[in-house]
Each structure stands twice: as structure tokens, then as C-alpha cells.
Amino acid sequence: MNRLQASRRTVLIIFMLSTFAIGMTEYVVTGLLTQFSNDLDVPISTTGLLLSVYALGVAVFGPILRMITIKFSTKRLLIVFMGIFVVSNIIAATAPNFEMLLVSRLLSATMHAPFFGLSMAVAVNISTPEKRTAAIAAVQGGLTIAIMLGVPFGSYLGGIFDWRYVFWFIAILGAIAFIGIILTTPNHKPIDTPNLKKELGMFKNKSVLLVIAIIVFGFSGVFTAYTFKEPMLREFAGFEVTAITAALFCFGLGAVIGNFASGRVLPRLLTERLMGALIMLAVVLVSFTYLLQFSITAFVICFLFGVGTFGTTPLLNSKIIIAAREAPSLSGTVAASVFNLANAIGAFLGTQVLEATGSYTTVTFVAASLIVLGLVITFVTHKVEDKALYE
């Protein structure tokens, strides 16, 4: 029994390292927007494309790639996807212009959702039923730890030296994860070969569709504001590199706490806890720019933003994966893709609002409005979803 426990922990640690590297790649650009703007000669608003293009790439190409490879070995795919990740970050580190940096982001984005989906599926398969939410949170935990440590470290490294060193660092992490996956990931083969037509039936599942709606129309508000967190810290709090690094760490610390706290929520309580998390997020976003104007409250509001954002994510991931029983191979990829579709929508909307108004406060108000819409859909979900799925 101890050997089985140790084996499960080892696999989850490797997955957490992998998702740490992937999460750092996705989110570290938010702490480097000013450096990209100065070095590559593009406006700050344009650098937001580094987030929206990545997120849109995950949303569009992730499910397509997973559907094409649905009958391939899980372990083999995890190895190939991590290889793609390493190459994409080497391209980013050597990018001669903004366009090539965008290309590297798109390449990395193609493997994001399938990797998360496969790793969450393996984590669930090696866990007992009562530990499945915690296993999903553990895989997601690498991403939140990246936000706590990787993003502020990357912001500091880029601010003090050069943003290219950040992507070299991520490529090295990816190479370590690549070796770890080869050595530790179990090569489980499903009893039945995955049937794509059957798995696509998840899109007829009312409970799944409602959660997708919450993410797309509500959670997208998070990235409307999050995309411009670094320039907001400069404008309202007057922070420079060291203080921005500390504020990003506070966000990440909140993200880790929120993520693992949500991992303890029982499946039958997911919807109720989700409503509480969304209410908290809406309040945080409405007050965000006002509290950034004072150093102490700036750190506090960044922490609470992290708690709310990543206290919500595992709940939504769990609701999709648990409810989509007809799609054990595809549900995790779809969940990751839908989140990134929401991220792309949010980043695009935030860019448009900022270009139209020039007001970060308006950006955060629009973000809060979207969260409230997600809360309304969650109330509807609570009334009509199939609760037997979460027993």
C-alpha cells in the first residue's frame, strides 16, 4: 500500500512540475509587458495579444489535437507534448521580433489543453473516488505555484536582466519534466479504446454545458482585469520591479491557498462553494483599482484576487470532469480549452476597453460585470443540474 501511495505522489509531483512550467509560460508575460513593449517596440495594449493569442490557441487547437490523437498512448502523448513545450520556449527565448514571439506562444498553446487533460485523467485514474478532486487540484496546483513563485521570479529576472532569460529558464524546467514523465508516468491502457463519437456526447450533457457557460460568460472577467495587472500596479500603486514582484507573489500565494482549499471540497458541495467564490471575485474586482492606490491594500487586494481566481478554477474543472462521465479521455482537455477560451475573450475585451477608454478602472468594472453574469448562471445551474452526477 505504501509503495502505491509513494508511486501516486511521485507521479503527481512530476505533473505539478510540468504544469508549473506550463503555467509559468502562460502567465509570466503579464509581469513582462513593459519589457516586451520597450524591447520589441510595440504598444502596451498590443502586448496583451501575447495572452489572448496563447489562450485562443489553447481553446481552438487543444481539442482538435486531442481528438486527432485520442487513440494514442497516454504516456507517449505526454512525452511528445512536453517536447513541443520545450522547443516552443527555446523559440521564444531567441525570438528576433514580436511576431516570432507570438508564433512561439501559439506553438506552446497547442499542447497546453491536451497535456492538462491527459495529466488530470491519469491523476484521477490513480486516485480513489474521495481523492479525485484533490488529485485534480494537485495537477492544477503546479500552475498556481507557478503564479506564486514563477511569475514574480520571471518578472524580477526580466526586469533586472532580460526577458529572454525567463524563457530559457522555463525551457530547462520543461526538459526536467520531460525526463520525469518518461521515468515515472504509468503506461495505463484503457480497457476499451476511446470512442470519439461517444466522447463528444459530453456536449449534449446539460450539466457540462452549464459549467461551460459559467466559464465562458463569467470567468472570462478574470482575464479582462488580470491581463493588465502589472501596468495597473505601476500606475496606481507607483510600484517598480521589486514591489511588483512582491505584489505578484501575493497574488500567487492567494492562488495556491485558494486552489488547495478548493481541492478539499466534496463533489456534492461544488456548486455552493462556486457561488461564494464568484461573489468574492466580483467584490475584489470592483474595488481593485481603488485599493491599489495604497501600498498595504495593494498587496492585500492582489492576494484576494489570487484566492478568488484559483479558488474558483478547481471547482469548475472538477464539475466538468466529474459530470462528463461519457468522456473520460476528452473532458479534461475540453475543460482546459474552455478556460483558455474564456481567458482569450477576457484579454481581448480588456484590450478593447483599455484602447477605447484609456481607463483601467473601467476595465475592472467590466471584469466584475462578467463575474456577476457567471454568478447568475451558477444560480440557474444549481436549480437545474443533475445533482446525482456529483454524489
3D architecture notes:
InterPro entries: MFS, MFS_dom, MFS_Efflux_Transporters, MFS_trans_sf. The chain has 391 residues and is mainly alpha-helical. The protein is built from 16 helices and no strands. Helix 7 packs antiparallel against helix 12 and helix 10 packs antiparallel against helix 14. The longest helix has 29 residues. The N terminus is likely disordered.
Summarize the structure.
InterPro entries: MFS, MFS_dom, MFS_Efflux_Transporters, MFS_trans_sf. Its main location: membrane. 81% of the residues lie in helices and 0% in strands.
**Largest beta-sheet details:** none
What is the count of helical runs? 16
**Strand tally:** 0
The coarse overall form would be: globular
Question: What is the averaged pLDDT score?
Answer: 85
Order of helices and strands: HHHHHHHHHHHHHHHH
Q: Percent range for helical residues? A: over 70%
- Uncertain ranges: 1-6
Radius of gyration: 20 Å
Set down the secondary structure blueprint.
Elements: H1 2-27, H2 33-40, H3 44-47, H4 49-68, H5 74-93, H6 98-125, H7 132-160, H8 163-184, H9 196-199, H10 206-226, H11 229-236, H12 241-262, H13 270-291, H14 295-323, H15 331-357, H16 360-384
Helix pairs in contact: 1-6, 1-7, 1-8, 4-6, 4-15, 5-6, 5-8, 6-7, 6-15, 7-8, 7-12, 7-14, 10-14, 10-15, 10-16, 12-14, 13-14, 13-16, 14-15, 15-16
Name a few traits of the molecule:
disordered N terminus, mainly alpha, 391 residues
